[in-house]
Amino acid sequence: MRVSVIQMNQGSDKAANLEQARRLVEAAVEADRPGLVTLPETWTNLGGGRESRRLAAEALPPEGSGAAGGPAYEMLRGLARRHGIHVHGGSMIEDGGEKLFNTTVVFDPAGGEIARYRKIHLFDITGPDGTGYRESALYGAGDRLVTFEAGGVTFGCTICYDIRFAEEYLALRRLGAEAIFVPSNFTLQTGKDHWEVLMKARAIESQCWILAAASWGQYEERGATRSVYGHSLVADPWGHVVAKVSDGTGWATARIDRAVTARVRRDMPVLEHRAARRVDFEAAARRVDFEGAARRVDLDAAVRPATP
């Protein structure tokens, strides 16, 4: 399956964001003929403060109902139907009633919703320049992992800050994922130092393809200008970046080659090794040797034999 990762420069004007996304998806489909396209995180809104986010939010129809949704939801569904492709909607702002959610929806070529994922790990950090980000002040967190099948490939869903939590990616691998989405709004400061290395690390650890559509450029947030890193990419299960977007809006396309996945997993069966040789790290941390200021953990002693 060929997958295109779309890179946008969205702002606080929802209608303009929808038009930008439509134009880029249609250009990618015309040029590269992908079977699946994926958009960035919160592609319907970036910036403008709380009120702007609330205005951009959409209440989603009940899962599996086939009912109509809001403008962004219906645009994604229409793109899937019109072009006969799967559309992974990056993430959009979901109006969940008392809370907003940072939510992915996925449509099949008939326009049916086949997956929905709410971001689990919320971006509550202080950047290197002292700028604070408190996603939990406005958004609720998801509580379940999500996979879906398209074109014979099992895909897993994550969003942006999830990338820093390797256990989520290993859990998706155990659920059968062969490729994992990471729609993102990485800040410029974190992106230039961490973006590519994190994407490659998760690909190597999970032995999955990583599909990371990102936002690029500047946006306004309560009178201040902020920058996002972009550099949307596809990494293979060996950690090679096989497709990447330059600065600016655009897209990159790569083919998900299941033979590559199978070869990497066969030659380095790390999942089987994890099952066969388990270390109880919490127990190991309690078995501590002190020599002066040194703290040593005897991991060999902590290894438990595999259960027959």
Automatic annotation (TrEMBL):
<dbReference type="InterPro" id="IPR036526">
    <property type="entry name" value="C-N_Hydrolase_sf"/>
</dbReference>
<protein>
    <submittedName>
        <fullName>Carbon-nitrogen hydrolase family protein</fullName>
    </submittedName>
</protein>
<dbReference type="Pfam" id="PF00795">
    <property type="entry name" value="CN_hydrolase"/>
</dbReference>
<feature type="domain" description="CN hydrolase">
    <location>
        <begin position="1"/>
        <end position="258"/>
    </location>
</feature>
<dbReference type="GO" id="GO:0016787">
    <property type="term" value="F:hydrolase activity"/>
</dbReference>
<keyword id="KW-0378">Hydrolase</keyword>
<dbReference type="InterPro" id="IPR045254">
    <property type="entry name" value="Nit1/2_C-N_Hydrolase"/>
</dbReference>
<dbReference type="InterPro" id="IPR003010">
    <property type="entry name" value="C-N_Hydrolase"/>
</dbReference>
